[in-house]
Amino acid sequence: MAAPLGDFRITRSRNPVDLLNAATRLFGGSITTSPLHGLHGLRGGDHELRGAAAPDFAIGYFASPLGVRVASAAAGRGSYFVNIGVAGEIVASRGTLRTTLDKTTAGVVNPGDTQELRPCRRGRTRFLGLKIDAALVDQEFAALTGHLPVSTVRFDFPLDLAGPKGRAVRLLVHSLVEQLDSGDFLFQRAELQRSQLRCIVTALLLAQPHTHTAELRDGPQPGHPRSLRAALAFIETNIAERITLTDIAAAAGCSPRTVSSAFRARLGLSPMSYVRNLRLNRIREDILASTDHVSTIAYRWGISHLGRFAGEYRDRFDELPSATAARR
User: Fold this and answer.
1) What Rg, from alpha-carbon coordinates, does the chain have?
2) What domains does the chain contain, in order, with CATH numbers?
3) Residues 290-309: tens digit of each pLDDT
4) CA atoms within 13 A of residue 7's CA, in its CB half-sphere
5) pTM
6) What is the pLDDT of residues 30-48, one digit of tens each?
7) Is 213 exposed, middle or buried (0-12, 13-18, 19+ CB in 10 A)?
8) Strand, helix or coil at 208?
9) Do the beta carbons of residue 272 and residue 245 sit within 8 Å?
10) N-to-C CA span, the chain
11) Is residue 302 within 8 Å of 241, Cβ to Cβ?
12) Which long-range CB contacts under 8 A does 101-105 form with residues at least 24 apart?
């Protein structure tokens, strides 16, 4: 890939501190020099960052000899990172795991993980870093399985970009960059960027082993009892309406206590928590994809108390609905 994100330069400086500050603004969290590298002797080279950010993601192109440590933000549900080499080789670590990033191997970092990236040799290595909001991974997992993950999806670290599955992830990431570079007005629209990002997340869920891979092998989990499948289908169909536990139990053909036990045993949360999370996910998607007022969208999805809704939304996404709407 030649000179990606050419119109999105954030900094190019001989001072590595400028790179660290710019990367922190783009990706959030804490980005510092690697303890094994430091700043000494690196003020003679160029350190460049190009990048773009939108709701649910940020992408950056790094060209620097600097080794960095990236720690996730302390608050919120966190983000995933996918790092892909463009030129040269980078020794990458995630906790005790280690791999070498290049054009054929990427690294996937999960929410809460600390990562280190160190060029193998002096000189300007180049790589792409893609940050993906954790809520989007949950949403795409639910689209594939019919339910939200019961715990955080945690991917294996090295991603083989040369194999058939990994190649799809690489092509989709490069396609996102090419769309941004095209300058075409349509590709600057949030709807198209989000559509492309959803494709990347879906490909990642299907291509890269993770803690919930078994649930994706044959589509929606066939092991759910009939009553639970009926309850999930009822919720999906009626998520914009007022739903009670009694309604869910009636659709499932069992008692509220039985359906609650099934949800907790199979999905790890109560029926009403599942309803709340799915509704909040739908509202967030609608906020990002339309220009309607937040209250209009919330009422459309069955919200009756805006104050309580705002608090639940903040707890789930670490920001108020108005902050999400401001990024449209």
Assistant:
1) 21
2) 9-215 (2.60.120.10), 223-326 (1.10.10.60)
3) 889 999 999 999 999 999 99
4) 9
5) 0.68
6) 788 765 455 444 545 788 9
7) middle
8) coil
9) yes
10) 29
11) yes
12) 101/127, 103/161, 104/160, 104/161, 104/162, 105/158, 105/159, 105/160, 105/161
